[in-house]
Design brief:
There is one protein chain. By secondary structure, this protein is mostly beta strands. The chain has a single domain, classed as 3-layer Sandwich (Rieske Iron-sulfur Protein), CATH 2.102.10.10. Helix content is 0%, strand content 47%. The protein contains no helices and ten strands. The strands form three sheets. It has a four-stranded antiparallel sheet, with no helix packed on it. A hairpin with a 6-residue loop joins strand 5 and strand 6. The chain is globular and about 40 Å long. It binds FE2/S2 (inorganic) cluster. FE2/S2 (inorganic) cluster binds next to loops.
Length: 85
């Protein structure tokens, strides 16, 4: 899913009950990572199919060369929190 906080777009991923958060916009061009295809720990950008590791934000394949920013998450009382500085 995607949300915006303080002007920053964030994508949140649920990988088998573990939650991760990255910048919600691809580092290549303007595409929402929340609309990408998830395969295991990888998310594929919906625009040009660049791949990122969801846990680390690492750019894995062209055309993406710059990592996604990642954010810490925690779950408390059924709520998912994302630490956005
Ligand atoms: S916009 Fe994401 S790979 Fe091009």
């Amino acid at each position: 899913m995607r949300f915006t906080h303080g002007g920053k777009c964030i994508a949140v991923y649920n990988l088998s009950g573990s939650f991760y958060a990255t910048s919600g916009i691809c580092t290549h061009e303007h595409a929402f990572m929340s609309e990408g295809y998830i395969d295991g720990e990888t998310v594929e950008c919906p625009l040009h199919q660049g791949l990122f590791n969801i846990r680390t934000g690492a750019a894995l394949s062209p055309p993406v060369t710059k990592n996604l920013q990642t954010f810490k998450t925690k779950v408390e009382n059924g709520q998912v929190y994302v630490l956005v500085e």
